[in-house]
Design brief:
mainly alpha; Growth Hormone, Chain: A; two-stranded antiparallel ribbon; 17 helices; 2 strands; disordered C terminus
C-alpha cells in the first residue's frame, strides 16, 4: 500500500481556499438571520424555531453528499462537482433572502399564522443552508482523501484559518458598509441596505473562491486512491453498505467526540440566536439620531462575531503547542464557557470584545480537533459517508437547542442574556465529556 505524499503549503492552501468564500456566506447567515426575521416580524420566543432549518438541512444533505461523492468519479473530480453546484445555488439564494421584505407578500398570503414574507424568508433560509452544506462538506472530504495522516492536523488548521478569515469578512460587511454610508435603517418589515449589499458582495466572493479551488485542485483518480488505500475502490463491497450498517461499524471516536459536539453546538446555536437580543438589552448604547438600540446592536453582532473569529485564529496558533489533543480540547471549551458567562456582566460595547475573544478559543477547537481525531481513525472508501454522518453530531444538537430554546427562554425569565449563560454551562459539560474520548495510537501522531 502506497503512502500519500506530503503536500506543499500552497497545495494544502489551495485545497481549502474555497472554504474562505463558503464561510463568508455562512457568517452572513449566522450573524444576520435573527435580525432579518426580527425585521420581518418574528417574536423573540419564536426565533429559535427558525434556526431548526439550517441544521435539519445539514443533517439530511451532508450524509447524502458524502455517500454520493464516495462513488462519484468523473473528469471534474470526486468531490468538486458537488462543491461547485452547491456554490452556484448559494449565490442565487444569497441574492433572494435579504429581499424577502421587499416582495409585497405580507398581506397576500398567510399560512399557519405566518405571513407570505416570513414563509418566503424561511424557504430561502432552507435553500441557502442546503446549498452551503453541499458546498462546505467537500472541503472536509478532500482533506481526508488527499492528505496523509502526518499532515492532516496542519491541513485542518489551514482550513480553520480560512474559515475564520471568511467569518471575519462576513461578520464585518454590514458594519463596514454602514460606516461607508450605506443605509442601516429600513422601513418596517424590510431589511436594511447594509445587510442586503453585504449578501450581494458575499455571493460574489463565494463564487470566485470556489472557481479558484476547482481550477487549482486535481483530485486523485480511482486507481491512485486504490493504491493509497490498498483496495480496489470500484469493487469494494464495504462501500456498498448502507449508512445504518456503517454507523454500527463506526470507531468509538465517532461517538465520543460526537458527545462533546452535542453540548458545544447547542451552545453556539444559542449564541447565534440570542446575541442580538442580549446585547440590545444588556449594553448601554449611544444612539445616533433615528436609530434604535436594535439597529445599532444588529451591526455590532457582526463585529462581536468577527472578534470571536480573531480569537479563534489566535488560539488556533496556540493549540499545536499542547502535548495532548484532549487537554487542548478541554481548556479551549472552558475558556469559551468563561466568555459566555462573562457576557452577562458586561455593559460596555467595547469591553464585550473580551468575552468573545474567549468564545473564539472554543470555536477554534471545534473547527479543527473533531475532524483531526475522526479522520485519523478512518480508513477505506467510506471517508465521505462517515464525515457526512458525523455532521449529524453538529446538526442534531442545534435542532434540539432550537426546539427547546423558547422553553428555556421562559425558564430564565425571558432574558436573552441568560441564554448565553446557559451556553456557557453547556460548554462546561462539553469539556467534561472530552474525558471519554479514547485516542488510538494512529491518532497520537497528530
Amino acid at each position: 500500500m502506497k503512502t500519500k505524499p506530503d503536500l506543499s503549503f500552497w497545495k494544502l492552501w489551495n485545497l481549502s481556499f474555497g472554504f474562505f468564500g463558503v464561510q463568508i456566506a455562512y457568517a452572513l447567515q449566522s450573524a444576520n438571520i435573527s435580525s432579518i426575521f426580527t425585521a420581518l416580524g418574528a417574536d423573540p420566543h419564536q426565533l429559535s424555531f427558525f434556526w431548526i432549518l439550517p441544521p435539519l438541512m445539514g443533517m439530511i444533505v451532508q450524509p447524502l453528499i458524502g455517500k454520493l461523492s464516495d462513488k462519484t468519479w468523473c473528469r471534474f473530480g470526486r468531490r468538486i462537482p458537488y462543491l461547485f453546484i452547491g456554490a452556484i445555488v448559494a449565490v442565487a439564494v444569497m441574492c433572494m433572502l435579504p429581499n424577502a421584505g421587499s416582495l409585497g407578500l405580507t398581506t397576500q398570503l398567510v399560512i399557519w399564522g405566518l405571513s407570505g414574507t416570513m414563509l418566503f424568508g424561511l424557504f430561502s433560509l432552507m435553500l441557502l443552508d442546503t446549498s452551503i452544506n453541499v458546498a462546505m462538506q467537500p472541503f472536509k472530504m478532500m482533506v481526508g482523501d488527499m492528505v496523509n495522516e502526518k499532515q492532516k492536523a496542519k491541513a485542518y488548521s489551514i482550513q480553520s484559518f480560512l474559515c475564520n478569515a471568511g467569518s471575519l469578512v462576513g461578520y464585518f460587511f454590514p458594519y463596514v458598509l454602514t460606516f461607508l454610508g450605506v443605509k442601516n435603517i429600513a422601513p418596517e418589515g424590510m431589511v436594511s441596505d447594509s445587510v442586503i449589499f453585504s449578501f450581494y458582495a458575499g455571493s460574489l466572493i463565494l463564487i470566485l473562491c470556489v472557481i479558484y479551488t476547482t481550477a487549482k485542485v486535481k483530485e486523485y483518480n480511482p486507481q491512485e486512491m486504490a493504491e493509497f488505500q490498498g483496495e480496489e475502490i470500484t469493487d469494494n463491497k464495504e462501500s456498498n453498505q448502507n449508512m445504518i450498517y456503517l454507523l454500527f461499524k463506526a470507531p468509538s471516536v465517532f461517538w465520543t467526540v460526537g458527545l462533546v459536539q452535542f453540548f458545544c453546538w447547542a451552545a453556539f446555536l444559542f449564541m447565534w440566536t440570542y446575541t442580538h437580543g442580549a446585547i440590545t438589552d444588556g449594553i448601554e448604547w449611544t444612539l445616533a439620531a433615528g436609530e434604535t438600540a436594535s439597529d445599532t446592536a444588529k451591526n455590532w453582532v457582526g463585529v462581536l462575531f468577527a472578534v470571536q473569529s480573531v480569537g479563534s485564529v489566535l488560539w488556533a496558533c496556540v493549540i499545536p503547542f499542547f502535548r495532548s489533543l484532549k487537554m487542548a480540547y478541554t481548556i479551549s471549551l472552558l475558556l469559551g464557557a468563561i466568555g459566555f458567562v462573562a457576557t452577562f456582566f458586561v455593559t460596555d460595547q467595547y469591553l464585550m470584545f473580551v468575552p468573545f475573544l474567549l468564545i473564539g478559543c472554543a470555536w477554534a477547537a471545534m473547527l479543527a480537533l473533531p475532524f483531526t481525531l475522526l479522520t485519523n481513525s478512518l480508513s477505506g472508501s467510506n471517508m465521505g459517508t462517515y464525515l457526512g454522518l458525523f455532521n449529524c453530531t453538529i446538526c442534531i444538537p442545534q435542532i434540539v437547542a432550537a426546539i427547546l430554546g423558547g422553553v428555556i427562554l421562559k425558564i430564565v425569565g425571558g432574558s436573552q442574556s441568560m441564554m448565553l449563560v446557559v451556553a456557557g454551562i453547556l460548554l462546561v459539560i462539553g469539556a467534561i465529556s472530552v474525558y471519554f474520548i479514547k485516542i488510538k495510537s494512529a491518532q497520537k501522531k497528530a
